[in-house]
Automatic annotation (TrEMBL):
Organism: Streptomyces cavernicola
Domain of life: Bacteria
Region Disordered, annotated ranges: 87-118
Gene name for this UniProt entry: rsrA
Polar residues bias: start-end ranges: 107-118
Location of the Putative zinc-finger domain: 11-44
Pfam families named among the record's database cross-references: zf-HC2
Record's protein name: Mycothiol system anti-sigma-R factor
Amino acid sequence: MSCGEPHETDCSEVLDHLYEFLDHEMPDSDCTKFETHFEECSPCLEKYGLEQAVKKLVKRCCGHDDVPTDLRAKVMGRIDLIRAGQAVPEHDLTAAPPEPQEPVAQRRSTASPSPQES
């Protein structure tokens, strides 16, 4: 998204780091650049307002739920992998492991014969 106007801080940079700004996880100098950008760019200000509203809604609706310890450990482990630049598993770390399946040959031999086989 871009408003088409030139800015000191590009719209794409602002949108790429919007959550860092919302979560107060960036240096004050960058926060000042973003605030200046929002004063100049209404599309980015609108996106900021929308994301801020969603964040508040999630906090209000889900902010009181305790996160299970094992889920927190899995998420933090994945974050550590990403920060270290290591490959992250494709499968869902929060899902239960899949049930082992019998080989097809065993399933056929233990199944009751079909009416055509009788």
